């Protein structure tokens, strides 16, 4: 699990560490790590380091200080370093003095554009964890002249450090070098950060505000049959989905459950014949009332939001096993929350809303802080809430929150959510903690999407077909 901390927690930890560290030492540690990455990027993009040109965009705080010190270190590699000071009177004093001593060049804001356009690398030291809002006009104006790779100091300037929200001009980096600990922006705004690297400067933090699963976490979570297992022992999942007119959602959700584990999958609904035809290994019946015992239910995709759908949902909620309520089930719960009264107390519930379904559940869209939004819904419904989006956030009623950093946007295709719900259900049936089940399913779903796409648009069927390869990839000890 990777820990992620808010800027408030990180600043407090930095202050504690600063109190016991020689003045400027932390910044020099950070800046040296930054300089190493800058040299690596120069070598990667131009084939050399010495004699290359780096232009620093320097803000008025310590973020700019990091950039200035890194420029001074790069001068040791004979890199031509120029610094554009956005607020010359407020630039970091010791960093500026270090750059000047090393032979770095200070250029005016007016001359900035030409130094940016001719650079082999631009270093974004405009603003870091003290950022408020999008870039100010003077900084934003410079970005139009960038023609080289961009290295962001700590985080890409103009992106909200705690939510990853971008609501105006902001830096788009090829690489971000952060210090001490990951901030939410690094998991929530992958398109702005590029590849993220962490430089340890000695910060020690516990109780992360946010977490991200490692591949190893997902591999450990994924059920694999052992010598004493049979089709029941790994958990039987029931899929209550689809209708005679819309069997597709049922085929996708049930197929995902079949592909996710070796446990038995039961299907219940009006698409039984189609599902049976597609997945002969499934035990399919026409109604949930005669579906037999399961260890978890998936309910919702394609069941409709009318009385019958509500009755199916109420029945499933009353079975006393974990439930993943997806798609139409989410809408039914939003419209008739009393349906949750059927829920056996303590029965784990996973809700999987996209932004529109979230708005139905909560009466307002998720907004910029999607982690806070998911947490509020989790508390309100006493459920794990898997808030789908470019970066899916999974919040538990006890406040735990996971972020899944996506691999591109290939999952934005019809039926993709049906596949995800089947994966969640299969992991719930295996007895996994519902929050972890939702996180691991999202991780594999995202990986399957990128494997299926492989650079070209894919479909829910393609994602479904790629699930086994995604699981193999997660579980392979060599990758
Ligand atoms: N504490 C340390 O020794 C270490 C700090 N590190 C680096 O420090 C920054 C945080 O520095 P701080 O001085 O708190 O503020 P910033 O540099 O992030 O911001 C400075 C300044 O920027 C202006 N500003 C705010 N929002 C915007 C905006 N949207 N556009 C333009 N300018 C903006 C505002 O005036 C701020 O005061 C941290 O990120 C690290 O890079 C290192 O981690 C090493 C240890
Ligand atoms: K920055």
What ligand molecules are bound, each kind once?
A: ligand LP7C6HRI, potassium ion
Give Rg in angstroms. 26 Å
Structural class label: alpha/beta
Helix fraction by DSSP (H/I, runs of at least 4): 40-55%
Q: Stretches where pLDDT falls below 50 for ≥5 residues?
A: none
The CATH class of the largest domain? Alpha Beta
- How would you write the strand order of the largest sheet? 12-11-10-13-14-15-16-17-18
Biggest sheet features? 9 strands, mixed
Number of domains: 2
What is the number of strand segments?
A: 18
CATH architecture of the largest domain: 3-Layer(aba) Sandwich
Strand content: 15-25%
* End-to-end distance: 17 Å
Could you tell me the mean pLDDT? 95
Global morphology? elongated
Q: Determine the number of helices (DSSP H or I, runs of at least 4 residues).
A: 18
CATH topology of the largest domain: UDP-N-acetylmuramoyl-L-alanine:D-glutamate ligase
GO molecular function: ADP-dependent NAD(P)H-hydrate dehydratase activity; ATP binding; metal ion binding; NAD(P)HX epimerase activity
Cofactor: K(+); Mg(2+)
EC number: 4.2.1.136, 5.1.99.6
Protein name: Bifunctional NAD(P)H-hydrate repair enzyme
